[in-house]
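Researcher: Go.
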Amino acid sequence: MKIVTEHEEILDVVERLQDALELVACRGLRVAGPAELDRLSSLRDELEELGAAHLSSLLVRLLRSVREGLRQSAEDLLRLQAALRVFERLLCREAAADRLLALAADAPEQPSIEDAGTVVARGRDNR
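Model: Structure:
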């Protein structure tokens, strides 16, 4: 059984949102049907649960502009996609940093620079 980390859970939501946005963009914002909009609404709820309020608010704005048939819906879509990409990059950076810290904590202790200086000084005394 695989344990899902918080980063993986968030990344899963991000990937599903990217897929949904790409589908809506390819089909066209004006022809987005109830199924696509419901899917985006459920992803908005997941974003809120994860604490990604900024992305959630951008998604609310997109949903409103699409439902009302506003011209700004394309701009809202691009703004959300850009914010989502930045969010994903920050998430990956944070996940990598956490992994490096975990690896460093598990690694055997390495001699420090100060320890190396002590060894060199002792070696000079023995001459």
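Model: The mean pLDDT is 84.
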